[in-house]
């Protein structure tokens, strides 16, 4: 069916593995720039910190209309549940910040499990460089909505 959302296909074959490192991308509803302002973006940052019982955040960058998150699942945590919890908490904070009941996120998320031989630091550098590639800043030092455990 043309025009019908295909987000269910993102879940096909998804498997969570404790200790595995994942690169997760989550997109704002209709790709709206819901995190264009610092206060809005901080809602997503607070949410990633709020799920620290489920995953260790290795790095993240909050872009105006999406976020990238490099995480390592903790024991007994599932990827879908962890991401859903982060999205839920971010939505709660964002709605309070904005005074709205509008949806924040598109359904689903995209993930890629890093292989054992993947360079985690290189993956983190790629994620953190998103504002540069998007032309938002000339240096990552000029962008406030990112962090990495190596810094």
UniProtKB/TrEMBL annotation:
The Transposase IS200-like domain extends over 17-130
Write down the superkingdom of origin: Bacteria
Report the protein name in the record.
Transposase IS200-like domain-containing protein
